Every structure is written in C-alpha cells, then in structure tokens.
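TA notes. Do not distribute before section.
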Amino acid sequence: MDPYTIVRLKSHPDHTFILLSYPGVETNGTVVVAPLLGEDQIAIVETLHPVVPTPMGHRVIAVERLGAVVPEIIIPTEDTLIEYDYLIHRALSRLFFGN
C-alpha cells in the first residue's frame, strides 16, 4: 500500500482512514492510520487538521487520533491524498514537535 492511501476497516467499511506509514513498514506487523472525519465531527484547528477533498466529500485528517493497526483489518481503496503531502506533514509536525 502506498502512503496516503485512503483505507477502510473491514469490520466497519463506512469508516475511512488515511494510511500514514511508508511502504514496507507493514512487514513489522502494523501500519499507522489516522481517521478521516466529517467537518462537523471535530473542532478544526487549522494547522493540526487538514481539510481535504475526497470521493466522500471534504474530510478532516485527525492526526492526533492516529493509531497502529494490523494490515489484515483494512481494505485499501484506489484513492490517495498524496497531493496533500505538505498539509499532512505540517499537521504531523505540529502534533509531534509543536512547529
């Protein structure tokens, strides 16, 4: 799976996430994902919560809710958010380093 691919949970296919791990990390047993939420589901902090267009409408990347999951429970889609690389990196930098 490529980084920034939109993925779904097998058990809850209506929940979408963005894959944050780089290729090959899944060989260690887990990958890191962050939920894609509706704009009405979270109080948006501009630098921390990139709002991006997706096939499901605009979604907020909730980086502070990231987590590790085993790859077997996710279904990758054909959709990617790679063009929002800068916004995603900026949000992760704010989360971990306060920049």
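Switch to the second chain here.
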Amino acid sequence: MPGDISPETIITGPRRHFQQLNEKPLRDDLVFYFAIVAVASVLFMALPLLTGEAPEVDGMHRAWSIVAGTLIVLVQGLMTGAVALLAVSLVEHFFLLFVDVHREFEQTMKSAVYALAPLILFSWAVLLEVPFAGLLLIAWFCLSTYFGVWIFHEKSKDRA
C-alpha cells in the first residue's frame, strides 16, 4: 500500500531531520526556541480570556491590564524558558559525561532546545486537561532527547 510506513522510515526520518538541524548554528536554534517560548507565553496569557475565566474589568482598564499582563507574562516566560533550557542542558550534559562524551556543550544545548520546544508549546494541553497530553509530551521529550544525543553527540544507538 502507498500509505504504509516501513520501520526503516520511522527511524531514518527523525535521524535525517536531526542531522539537518545539526548543521545549523546554535544561534538559529536559540532564536527558534525563544520564539516558541514567546508564543507559548502569549498563549498562556490568552488562555483565561478564551476560556472565560478572566477577571471582569471594563473599559480602558481592561485594555491596559491585557497589555501589561501580556508584557509581564512574556518577560516572565522568556526568563523561565532561559532557566529551563540551561537547567535541562546542564543535567543532560552531566549525564553524558558518564558515557565519555567529549563533545561541546553547544551540542547538548541543541538537543535540549529540540526536546523542550514542543513541550513548552503544547503545555497548554495539560492545563486544559486534554486526556493523555502529559504522557504524550513526556514521551516526545524522551524520544527527542534520545535522537538529539544520538545525532548531535554522534553516539551509537545503545550509548544514546
């Protein structure tokens, strides 16, 4: 059948994608990551407005509270995103030292960027209590970390 996916394609598809990402400079990855964090921050600000749980404020006070709230949430999100990226990168790099990885910290940070980006972008699904959203996000994080270590650190499948 033309719609069938072979097991070979499942493994080589992400591998090829991560190899292409490995050729890009870290600067591009960080711009991508912080754009995702900014979008997620604004989404979190808009979530109470969309669900109807926002406090009742009328007139110009409502507009100013939305603008101020968005700016505060955006700055807070960017700071939290930076701390999360650094923390995950440091923990991942610490454990990679046990398998004798002598690659640069830059590769570990690339791996953390692509593991955290979908987690941050789709974390609203957990707040809306979408069934199995948390489990799917954790599984995605684990798989993308595995592929990141495998490709960016050029390790064998077993060591990754």
